[in-house]
Amino acid sequence: MVVFPNCKINIGLCIGSKRADGFHNLSTIFIPIPLTDALEILPANLPTGKQVIYSQSGNAIDSAEADNLCIKAYYLLQKDYPLLPAIRLHLHKTIPMGAGLGGGSADASFTLQLLNNQFQLNLSTNQLIDYSLLLGSDCPFFIINKPCFATGRGEILEELIVDLSAYKIMLINPGIHINTGWAFKQLQLSGTNQTTNNLKEVINQPIETWKHHLTNDFELPVFDLHPEIKKIKEVLYTNGAKYAAMSGSGSTMYGIFEKDSIPTIKFPENYFLKTLQLS
């Protein structure tokens, strides 16, 4: 069975105080976008003690299998469902990694859902959300996979109606990896984590007004360290973007354009560039 984990963007991202559990409170709006990986799971007859045969194609993943979120998702369920069959798991990676798009989180959550469906575990949505949170703060969103207002560490989700069908999104990733831990430390030093916005009210205003009210708190430190990323945002606005921002802790930038007015913008050849229809 094959599924296609999609990624997300953040529209507005306000980072608040550090919690007792070491995470930060935040508020953001998650929007799913149709850039996908591909994930296949097949039952397998494997030697005793071996539960997962993993293979991967597409973009290289620079991490050990022990750190792979898809494999972790399998063993998380297998601990509670010891009769879960052994599997062959193949991941084709298209979504840029370490880019603020949540690709790894999506792969993990889709693995949980695929295992649940394929092997009839009969887990509810709430149960899947609980399991997914053990894998990462962004993972619960991908269980719902609809526009959501997120608070807490990102796991408290309220579905929203956000109609962006009149627009397309241009994604640009310059291939710069932003360490999320570093980004949080910069917020603590700079004090930008005090930013607050009523995101749910702003998202219902005309898109042209968003740039005056919606901010991503990570942009300031990331732009200071990598001015070329800030330049992407400027180029997007110069070319007619209705709204442009960085997703997550970066380094992916996006611009939202009217779908009949997509410009041709020349970026360096090593940049990842994709234009997608929104819904």
Can you summarize this structure?
With 279 residues, the chain is of the alpha+beta class.
Task: Describe what this molecule looks like in 3D.
- By secondary structure, this protein is of the alpha+beta class.
- The chain folds into two domains: 2-159, Ribosomal Protein S5, domain 2 (2-Layer Sandwich); 167-277, Alpha-Beta Plaits.
- It has nine helices and twelve strands.
- It has helices at residues 69-80, 103-118, 125-133, 139-144, 180-190, 199-202, 210-213, 219-225, 227-238, and strands at 2-3, 6-18, 24-36, 38-43, 52-58, 87-93, 148-151, 156-159, 167-173, 243-246, 253-258, 272-277.
- Helix 1 (69-80) packs parallel to helix 2 and helix 2 packs across helix 3 (125-133).
- It is globular, with a radius of gyration of 19 Å.
Topology:
Layout: E1 2-3, E2 6-18, E3 24-36, E4 38-43, E5 52-58, H1 69-80, E6 87-93, H2 103-118, H3 125-133, H4 139-144, E7 148-151, E8 156-159, E9 167-173, H5 180-190, H6 199-202, H7 210-213, H8 219-225, H9 227-238, E10 243-246, E11 253-258, E12 272-277
Parallel strand pairs: 5-6
Antiparallel strand pairs: 1-4, 2-3, 3-7, 4-6, 7-8, 9-11, 9-12, 10-11
